[in-house]
Specification:
The protein has a five-stranded antiparallel beta sheet, covered by helices on one side. Strands 6, 7, 8, 9 and 12 form a five-stranded antiparallel beta sheet that branches. A two-stranded antiparallel sheet has the order 10-11. The chain has two domains: 72 residues, OB fold (Dihydrolipoamide Acetyltransferase, E2P) (Beta Barrel); 125 residues, no CATH class. The radius of gyration is 22 Å and the shape is globular. The longest helix is centred in the middle third of the chain and has 19 residues. 17% of the residues lie in helices and 41% in strands. By secondary structure, it is of the alpha+beta class.
Length: 208
C-alpha cells in the first residue's frame, strides 16, 4: 500500500477511502481495516494506527480518529479477542511474574514483555495502575501473585508476593533496521519494518 496523505471514512463498517498524494489522479481505492492497534495525539488531533486486510503489518497507517467508523472505534475500546489468545497472553504474563517473584525483593522489579494490547484493554480497560481486584478469576487462578517455597522438613512455607498496585505502560516498539531477507532473485534486501506490542510492568514485592 502506498503512503497516503489523506484518509476519509467511506460506506460500510471498517472501510476507508484512501486518496494518494494530492498531485496524483482522482482514482480511488478501497481498503478494509483489519484492526485498530493504537492511538496517539498529534498537534491536538487524535489518530489511530490501523492495519489493513490482506496487507502485511508494516503497511499499517495512522489515520485521523474522526475519519474512523464508530465500529472501529468501538472495537479498539472494547476489543473482541478469542478466549484462547487471552489465555495465552495471560499465561505469558503470569509466568513472567512468577520468575520475578522467585528473585529477591530488590531484584527484577520491572520488566518488559510482548503482550497484545487488545488483550490488555479487554482485561483492564484503560487502567494502567492495577489493583488485585482488576485480575478476574476467569483468567487469573488463585495464588498466581504468590511464590511459595518449603523451608526444610518442618512444613513451613515462605515466599514472596506482589505488593499492589502494579503499574503498567503500553509501548509500540519498531523492529530493528538491520534485518535483511532474500528476495525471489536470491538478493538480500532490507526487511520491511513492523512493530511489536509490549507492556512495561513495575511492581513491588514483599516477603512473607
Amino acid at each position: 500500500m502506498e503512503r497516503v496523505s489523506r484518509a476519509f471514512a467511506s460506506k460500510g463498517s471498517g472501510y476507508y477511502r484512501l486518496l494518494a498524494h494530492e498531485d496524483s489522479s482522482d482514482e480511488e481505492e478501497m481498503y478494509e481495516v483489519d484492526r485498530a492497534v493504537s492511538k496517539r495525539v498529534v498537534d491536538g488531533e487524535e489518530q489511530m494506527l490501523v492495519t489493513w486486510v490482506g496487507y502485511p503489518i508494516h503497511t499499517a497507517s495512522w489515520v485521523p480518529s474522526a475519519h474512523v467508523t464508530a465500529a472501529v472505534r468501538s472495537s479498539y475500546d472494547i476489543p473482541f479477542v478469542p478466549d484462547r489468545i487471552v489465555r495465552h497472553e495471560v499465561h505469558t504474563f503470569t509466568s513472567r511474574i512468577d520468575r520475578c517473584l522467585a528473585k529477591s525483593v530488590s531484584k527484577d522489579r520491572s520488566f518488559t514483555i510482548e503482550f497484545c494490547h487488545d488483550v490488555y484493554r479487554k482485561l483492564f480497560s484503560s487502567n494502567l495502575v492495577l489493583n488485585k481486584s482488576h485480575f478476574c478469576s476467569t483468567y487469573f487462578t488463585e495464588g498466581w501473585d504468590y511464590n511459595y517455597r518449603k523451608i526444610g522438613s518442618s512444613g513451613t512455607y515462605r515466599g514472596r508476593c506482589i505488593q499492589y498496585p502494579i503499574r503498567c505502560t503500553l509501548h509500540m516498539i519498531k523492529d530493528i533496521d538491520n534485518r535483511y531477507v532474500k528476495n525471489s532473485k536470491g538478493q538480500f534486501v532490507p526487511k520491511s519494518k513492523g512493530f511489536r506490542e509490549t507492556i512495561r510492568v513495575n511492581l513491588a514485592k514483599v516477603n512473607f
